[in-house]
## 1
Amino acid sequence: MTNTLYDALFAPHATNDELFLTLDDGTQVCYARFVARIGQLAHVLRDAGVNPGDRVVVQAPKLMDTIALYGAAIQTGAVYLPLNTAYTQTELRYFISDATPALVVCDAQNEQAISAICDGAAQVLTLSADGTGSLSTRADTRDTGFDTVARRPDDLAALLYTSGTTGRSKGAMLSHKNLLSNAASLTDLWQITDQDRLIHALPIFHTHGLFVAMNTALLAGAQVRFMAGFDLDTIVRELPSSTLMMGVPTFYTRLLGDPRLDADLVKPMRLFISGSAPLLAETHTDFEARTGHRILERYGMTETNMITSNPYDGARVAGTVGYALPGTEIEITDAGTPVPPGEIGMIEVRGDNVFQGYWNMPEKTAEELRDTGFFITGDLGIKSEDGRISIVGRQKDLIISGGYNIYPKEIEDVINDVDGVLESAVFGVPHPDFGESVMAVIVLENIELAPEQIAAQVEPELARFKHPRQYIIADALPRNTMGKVQKNVLREVHAETGAH
Ligand code: MCA
Ligand code: AMP
């Protein structure tokens, strides 16, 4: 019985006594124990009625059991669907109704609200920050052996929601082959081995922390220092005994802000990797000056996994995202036609890493995934003569704050629903810690409404990281002759405000 992803990432470790995870409280988990836990959790999933192809929604804290649950979903042939722990009930209602899961796993404090949303259509089990909950309790008494369900390379392994320009999040369907091919390319390119110890401070509900970091570590049999979240002191403490770190640019600017960061502290470190948002050239050069390490920047998307990487051995050039990964083709296009090297165009990508389409959204899939297999990323870039890619902008209206993607349309829709609001424009302005932060300019109907009154209605609907840091009331929005709101004008006018 073969199961593409399980056989590559988890099964080989069934008798591996080497160390896998080290947690914040000092707990150490070896690979074999981790695989045994996956087996126990797989029984719980099956008992809960999860069948092959069913979605398992997980909105849970970052724990060993949460990552084992990913393995268990794969072993039972289910589709793993992780959700940001910051999502509000309104946001959860959408994801659950769209994905129609068989099971939802959540923190006990959200059990009641999520049960009400599911309304009997899905089972709800709990996994809380202290590791307790009905999921763990049930697993504790189950067998560790589980007959792995067969899954082929094209079967779905995960469904990851990514916000959309229309305001509605889209579920990106990722197959076993999509995930495994990308993990294999990255492990090879970044030379990850069982001698590595990875600092893992990213959330595990996105591609970066879940697939880029965990799948490569599992494939290589590396050790993982699994941190509940980003904590500067913990990272500074762990750097001298680690070899590898993956982070968003905010990790690196925060480290640079700490006087303890120097070449001595990072002596055993082999590789620092950055992605999910543009790394400023200044951060790149400052980091090298302080530590002697040139950060390796790579580029990816939820729909495509990783697309490019700067080389491990060759030049890591600040402001570029490197070359297409092996097995991945990139074309820079203008209205679908490739443009010559050095010219700006749309970045399109094709390869085993590219997803299977959007869940329940065939029209969206058709708009963004060509019949030729090329996916239209929405990012604008340039390819040099030798194939090196630089991202120069985005055609999609997107804000990236601390590595989280925020689509303005989603926030504008909520603001526009407030009584007394005529229209709004949401955009990103430079922010020293998060790279960009969210700002809203609002035009009112003929009525007095304070920004705080608007915020009080908007914010309960949206995860905290999406909240505008400022609401500005204006008489009108700047528009071009076609009537389109000029967000570039708003960004320029308000550029200074976001830094505060
Ligand atoms: C936290 N807050 C944020 C963010 N994170 N606000 C805006 N943007 C954020 N990213 C809020 C908190 O709720 C808090 O609100 C306040 O800001 C300060 O929180 P702080 O303690 O400073 O935050 P933190 O807990 O230290 O988190 C910052 C972080 C985190 C470490 C940068 O956001 C993070 O881990 N980001 C990584 C995201 C990621 O994994 N992206 C990959 C997506 P209050 O005011 O209530 O205190 S995958 C992807 O993009 C593709 C595929 C790719 O290429 O990787
Ligand atoms: P997501 O859809 O959440 O996976 O985010 C993907 C988007 O993040 C891409 O389309 C890019 O706009 C952006 N992104 C990821 N990595 C980088 C990078 N290294 N530099 C610039 N933008 C990036």
## 2
Amino acid sequence: MASSYSRHVASLEENYRQAIDGEFERVLIHGGSIGYHFADDRELVFQAYGHFTHWLPVGRPQQLLLIEPGRKPVYYQVVPDDYWYEQDFPLEDEWREAFAVRQLSSLEDMPKPGKGTAWLGPGAEIARGLGIEAAACNPEGLLARLDFARAVKTPYEIEQLRLANRLAMRGHEAAHACFLADGSEFDIHLAFLQACQQLDEELPYTPIIALDEKAATLHYQHKRRRLPRPARVLLIDAGCRVNGYCSDVTRTWTRPSSHGLFKQLVAGMDRLQCELVDEVRPGQNYVELHSSALRKLAVLLLELGICQGDAEQLVDMEIPQLFMPHGVGHLLGVQVHDVGGHQRDSSGAQTPPPEHSPALRTTRDLVEDMVFTIEPGCYFIPMLLEPERGSEIGKSIDWGAVDRLYDHGGVRIEDNIRVGAETAENLTRTSAA
Ligand code: GLY
Ligand code: MN
Ligand code: MN
């Protein structure tokens, strides 16, 4: 029986056949080259181009795939002769079955692919050297068709995403335990890596590990080695990669010493997030899900006394966005913020996010086997809230509550969701075992 990977490759072959659609005869996909720090021989962390990883999880520079309808895909495995770095690496049996493998010791040995070839990926100068004209490098129409299709996953991809979630949850458990044992941001970071058995450079993104007030910086990137006192809040946003596929999971933890109101907020956010997951249906629009998150956040802020008035009025005044300036989620796959989030269709026409939520990364209609995150949050960010302290809008906010919660930073809960035939599959919570 064909493996799920070979069925995935077969389905990509069909997608590409349709996407090429008479415009080109074949596509050459370049995974990318190594970059260097300026005026230095130190390498930047390499990450292969998404459309390359979609076919083959080889995170090495200068690899090429040739896709031509009606012919077996070809993988040009470039393995330079080198005694400074190890360049060779073993190939999985199923890659050998799916591709005709041609090993080259240099890109210079790459045969010219001929007229009618489109180039996908970085390295336009390499494409030129192979006789591919500029207009055939990353052509907009072809890319729009491929980007659009990538949102919907094959069973193989869904399995990788489940595994990436299971691994991340191991890391999250270890991180939580480290927090409860008074670990610093640095200690928690290492605990996550150790439990997942991944190096920083193998992760899909730099983990956000924020204690107390630092949780209010959405993409907080530092790792403090020491804290003046035991922390009361941990917001950790960290995921793993499995065969190129990313998980992207956020949890917020409290301790007995955390403020009671903040504990209620975390419990309320967890409920709110689960309710949003329950709303997922094929045919629904993602912007609706985001609007629902803003409405639910307004209700929660009223219930907890952080705001006063009427939920509808709060939404009209865009008060929830002062506490949740981010979008409720994004497409997820071989990139953590996957491509095509604003595409209306495969032509590349865009549906931008609504004016009231410019950070929303997807406006797509949901279809079965699409995978994305749902990650509502509530932050106490002085830069957003303070300008409203004396304003008309500010009259709906209980500033005493805000002042009490500033040093708790914020809360966000993030899971990875697959659209099922009728409802959602939560890849994060069901993969935790
Ligand atoms: N990890 C970044 C995000 O949640 O989108
Ligand atoms: Mn995240
Ligand atoms: Mn995310």
## 3
Amino acid sequence: MTRILVYGSLNIDMVFAVDHIVLPGETVSSSSFTRNAGGKGANQAAALGKAGMNVFLAGKIGADGKFILPLLGSYGVDTGNVAVYEGATGNALIQVDRNGQNSIVLYPGGNGDISVSEVERVISAFGAGDFLVAQNEIAHTGEIINAAKKRGLKVHFNPSPYDEKVEALPLDNVDCFFVNELEGAALAGLPKDAPPAAALDKLVKRFPKAEIILTAGKNGAYYGQAETREYAAIVDAPVVDTTGAGDTFTGYFLAALVKGMTVRAALETASKASSITVSRRGAMESVPFAVEVFGSRLFHVEGGN
Ligand code: RIB
């Protein structure tokens, strides 16, 4: 089965449930506080693992984050390439408001301590036919993309959180982008409120060899590659907490393709998986398992593995 290397962040998510996201100068009380396992890399690896993929996570944590490893292991994620160093694990301070929307402040911790020699060692164990999945939440993302491309991996990149450093990355070495509407508009050089289909067209022109998956919240999910376009509508669900919804989408879209589904079916599958995630609290713990998403199709897809 395709080996999928997720090289990315692991965080301790400190989650405060609030009425509204706190304003500058304001102090608010939260109705609950939880300390959860998170990080975009770890969440995407968890989604791939829960979807039944052969997934490997590489990253770095401190001793305070060791509790994340057995959880990932229980989802089928190989964490042998997660280093433990003497410093602190990455932290995410997350407010979730009464509508399930969040705001996040990151402290990099181990995510910022990854070295080029570690990147080279990890990626040397992977090669042609394997996938890389990367985000913009750890040090040396550019080196990770280049090393993976050089060894023949298919490079998937989710430029999240989007910042000015993204444009300096070797984006021409990316085979497949996962962006939300804000990231898509920024990468396309369009205003924040640009229509998703317009941003998609610009991205396809900017990266003519790459596949683009653009998620647009309530407006559904789009796929573009050269002249090909696909679309899936949102799957409606009560929104409790949107944390991890994009990570779920990435993991389940890839899993569906690996299982032999069409792009359209993969968009629909990933939308369904994300709708389950937003209806639950937390990050990787709220990601659904394969049986909740694929149902019986899990066992009947042509060419599935
Ligand atoms: O995508 C959600 C994740 O973003 C959270 O789990 C948090 O850790 C931040 O990395």
